[in-house]
Amino acid sequence: MSGLTYAPAVRRRRNRSSQPNLQARVEHRPDEIKVLFLAGKGRSGGTILASLLGQLPGFFNAGELNKLWDYALMPNYQCGCGEPLRSCETWSAILAEADRLYREQTGAPLLSEGVGLAQASVVRWPKLPRLLRMSPGTTEDWPALDTYTNAISATCRAIAKVTGACVIVDSSRLPFEPIALGLVPSVDVHIAHLIRDPRAVVYSWKRVRKLTDRDTGEEFPRYSAAFSTASWTIRNLVVEMIRRRNPVSVVRYDTLASDPAGTLQRLADFVDEPAGDLGFLKSGRAYLAPTHSAGGNPVRVSSGSIAIQPDEEWREHLSRHDRVVGTALALPLLHRYGLSVRTH
Ligand SMILES: [Zn+2]
């Protein structure tokens, strides 16, 4: 029977405060790779935040790493640099090194159906209680989790080796990904908790948007107000739960839009790395170099001069029905996050 052998429990000062905007300083182990995991509901500014963080020296914007197992196997899915991921030089080198590391450990190839199937069987809402019970150092017979975490670990180690990055930005959002729970060997995870008004999130998930990072003509799925608000609430509650095990820094959508430089500086301090020159941010715009994000919102493929401003269209155009549903279902957390019940 093969058991899980996670990295030894990391000695850290945990953030146990009930205040959501506190940051915890952590003791970093030199043999671990820092990962800044962006957690929360999609359409909360995470893609642009990851692109901004990718401009900082020593930071690598990996995009939504939990999509890698789709993107790396599809010939027509784009990397953030605009190349198909499979022909991007950076990701080709990363995946070759990750494959070497993974084969060394498991004897199996990294890019195979096995990892994707393992991910699909582990990262499911019904598995949330079991995942939350686990901690670094836990030994349990769960081969699929072993497969998935070893693959992520090999990928993170390969990113660090190939790019020289000291912080990997993972914008996967889903807060019970094993990497967010601190269950991936060799990874020291810090969580950036993205919070946006749920009524804005509802509106965004109802808009028609094309998936422009592939040539299939697909559109984003669209969801009802009830589904989006329930998802927003549950994801935020899970982040609240994992604040007891990993350091968390809150990033509010409005603060990111109004003060991107301050937000980047705060997150750089959070992971204990210098932010460097923030001159690429100027009066409501950012001048972005392409990053090699693998998977996520197609906005990540944009580079050059980008406007950084809040999208407030929802305040005018969200229907009364969706406004009521979004407010009612999110009410307890609206209060907790200091968001107004009124939207005008
Ligand atoms: Zn690329």
CATH architecture: 3-Layer(aba) Sandwich
Q: What proportion of the residues form beta strands (DSSP E)?
A: 5-15%
Structural class based on helices, strands and sheet pairing? alpha/beta
Tell me, briefly, the overall form: globular
* H-E string: EHEHHHHHEEHHEHHEEEHH
State the low-pLDDT regions, or none. 1-26
Main β sheet profile? 5 strands, parallel
> Termini separation (Å)?
59 Å
Would you report the number of β strands?
A: 8
What is the domain total for the residues? 1
The helix tally amounts to: 12
Radius of gyration: 19 Å
Determine the fraction of residues in helical runs and give it as a percent range: 25-40%
Q: What do we call the CATH topology?
A: Rossmann fold
Bound molecules: zinc ion
Q: In which order are the strands of the major sheet placed?
A: 2-3-1-4-5
Described by its quaternary structure, the protein is single chain
User: Would you state the CATH class?
Assistant: Alpha Beta
Structure description:
The protein has helices at 46-53, 68-71, 89-106, 113-122, 128-133, 143-163, 198-204, 225-242, 253-258, 260-270, 313-317, 320-336, and strands at 33-39, 59-61, 167-173, 187-195, 248-252, 281-282, 285-288, 304-307. The protein has 344 residues and is α/β, with parallel strands linked by helices. The chain has one domain (34-336): Rossmann fold (3-Layer(aba) Sandwich), CATH 3.40.50. The longest helix is centred in the middle third of the chain and has 21 residues, at 143-163. The N and C termini lie far apart (59 Å). Zinc ion (ZN) is lined by residues 79, 81, 83, 88, 90-91, 292.
